[in-house]
Amino acid sequence: MKRSIQALSALAAVLAGAWACASAPPDKTALAIIESRSNSTVTGKAIFMQLSNGKTRVEVTISGATPGTHGLHIHEKGDCSAPDATSAGGHFNAAGNPHAAPTDAKRHNGDLGNIEIGSDGKGSLTIETDMLTVDPGPDSVVGKAVIFHEKADDLKTQPTGNAGARWGCGVVVLTPTGNANAQKVR
Ligand code: CU
Ligand code: ZN
Q1: Ligand nearest, relative to CA of residue 166
Q2: Is 175 helix (H, G, I), strand (E, B) or coil?
Q3: What is the Å distance from ligand 2's center to 180 Cα?
Q4: Rounded distance from Cα 75 to ligand 1 centre (Å)
Q5: What are the DSSP calls for 3-45, one per residue?
Q6: Which domains, from first to last, does the chain contain?
Q7: Which ligand is nearest to the CA of 144?
Q8: How far apart are CA 151 and CA 155, in angstroms?
Q9: Which of the four, 33, 50, 93, 116, has the lowest number of CB atoms within 10 Å?
Q10: What is the pLDDT of residues 18-52, one digit of tens each?
Q11: Model-level pTM greater than 0.90?
């Protein structure tokens, strides 16, 4: 828990920026700061907003990556401690489904598909999913990890999408203020 709290305080500025874009602060928000792994230069962040329609919006921004298509997943363990991020385990799969595309009904909870990186090494992805929540429960993204991969996810190879090394990793934590869930990490 101490690590979560440190991450939260370091990220207060990120949050303030995200909230400034909305007309009102979202009720339930979590985020992850993505750090380099596997000797990459990748950094980034992911913001999770639980919407009133029951879906969760995921907004990811990446920099320092190679141009092209890169797999992006939620992995099952909120542990980025290994130099190659293997400590984060496999894809988050509470549903017990095969690996698939984010547009497929039967997929891992953590299957976010791919993110496109431009010639400047930067890219962003916004996706809404009905297989992740910020609220506690079997589909909760809090305490999991965001992984950015070396290669494209082919959206079919089991169970990984053949996306290669783990170039970026970030543990998902609840945001520090503005929602009731934040009390749980204090
Ligand atoms: Cu992955
Ligand atoms: Zn998967």
Answers
A1: 1
A2: coil
A3: 30
A4: 6
A5: HHHHHHHHTHHHHHHHHHTSSS--SSEEEEEEEE-TT---EEE
A6: 29-175 (2.60.40.200)
A7: 1
A8: 12
A9: 116
A10: 555 555 554 689 999 999 999 999 999 999 999 99
A11: no
